[in-house]
Hints:
By secondary structure, the protein is an alpha+beta fold. The chain contains five helices and seven strands. The radius of gyration is 15 Å and the shape is globular. The model has no long low-confidence stretch (mean pLDDT about 95).
Amino acid sequence: MRTGIGYDIHRLVTGRKLVLGGTVIPFEKGLLGHSDADVLVHAVCDALLGAAGLGDIGMHFPDTDPKYKDISSLTLLAQTNRMVREKDFSIRNIDTIIFAEGPKIGPYRNSMQQNLAAAVNLDPDCVNIKATTTEGLGIIGKGEGIGAMCVALIE
Ligand code: MG
């Protein structure tokens, strides 16, 4: 058994779609980034890469590469899944936290769970999504960004 941890944060700006866990969420702002800036999926990629000893997301999908411009991060997660399985690992479970002052995550939790599970060929029961605010504190609390963490167990 091996574990990996992933963390990411992106800035919230006007004029961008908000994509979290592969689900488009109606909101007045979206996350800024080279890809679709899906902070939750980026944290999951990093946790899986970390568990498998494969470095990090920036090494494999650099934000200087035009082929990743506006790409769905679920595509990057599916590619990460292939890399992990090519090393003969299987994924046991993925646990995540989204840090956001808004929007409410609850209504989209199921959809995000299904998206993540499908991208890594895992039973949705083995993918967990939690969400919390930061009680108005710090950059996330002020609504300037959204963060995410992930822990993954592979065998
Ligand atoms: Mg990122």
